[in-house]
């Protein structure tokens, strides 16, 4: 049980930068005086990880740990 809890905490921590960036871009687009586009791609990697690509003019790439429950 403790190991699952540690894996779950690591999973949440690895997603924090992704969620922060998504929130920042969303706010920028919402208050921008014009058109904006936001795209999120998620690709499967090996060893319980996924690559998250956030595109909005620039691309931000993250590798996050995935814990299957």
Strand order of the largest sheet: 1-2-3
Total number of helices: 1
- How many discrete structural domains? 1
| Overall shape | elongated
Write the element-wise H/E pattern from the N-terminal end onward: HEEE
| Main beta-sheet annotation | 3 strands, antiparallel
Low-pLDDT parts are 1-9
Strand content: 25-35%
* Measured distance between first and last alpha carbons: 12 Å
Mind telling me the C-alpha Rg?
15 Å
**Total strand count, please?**
3
Give the helix level as a range of percent. 40-55%
Strand-pairing-aware structural class: alpha+beta
Mean pLDDT equals 83
Task: Report on the architecture of this protein.
There is one protein chain. The protein is of the alpha+beta class. It has one domain. Helix content is 43%, strand content 32%. It has one helix and three strands. It has a three-stranded antiparallel β-sheet, covered by helices on one side. The longest helix is centred in the first third of the chain and has 30 residues, at 2-31. The radius of gyration is 15 Å and the shape is elongated. Mean pLDDT is 83; it is low at 1-9.
List the SSEs and their pairings.
Elements lengths: L1 H30 L7 E6 L4 E8 L1 E8 L4
Antiparallel strand pairs: 1-2, 2-3
